[in-house]
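Annex B. Sample input.
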Amino acid sequence: MIRQIIHIDKEKCNGCGLCAKACHEGAIEMVDGKAALTREDFCDGLGDCLPACPTGAITFEMREAPAYDEEAVEKAKGIPMAGTRGSGAFTSKDGELAQWPVQIRLIPTKAPYYDGKGLLVAADCAAYASESFHKMFMKGRTTVIGCPKLDPVDYTEKLAAIISSNEITDVTVVRMEVPCCSGLTKAVENAVNISGKNIPVKKVTLSSRGGTL
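Annex B, continued. Sample output.
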């Protein structure tokens, strides 16, 4: 199957072993002083190992790989099966979140859960500011979140790839009133232009108290 999975650049790997410790599934091991993905079926594609890597040796890629085998992972840990997890589409019992992951840096650029839906690009803080965030903005949309101030990347390229590669009906940007959030709106505008698609973009700004400005 084609799915999101991690890729380890051995040239960049310094052998610190932090990624292996951060991988809760046991998919990464140290081999000859370098990190290696030894069990592809143990990799859930969520990337707990990414922030642990100090050299940027770990990235995501979409490629042919065996499905994530949660049962095998739990058996290896000696833990009874208690449910399912992993990336992809799902139904949230308590809210309107329709897929996982949600971070712009982690979410794949192409997936079935984008097609035929609007794309919600929201600031990290927005859901905490607005108590009605799920019903007002997330319902019926694929949600991605980010913070231009905290994430040391420009979201434009990733968002453009998402918009170009999927049948997205529209884009809604929900940002906070703080100046640093303007980078999120700019990234979306640039991404839509780069994609070449003529889709509507709605921009919403929330106050620190959650009201719409």
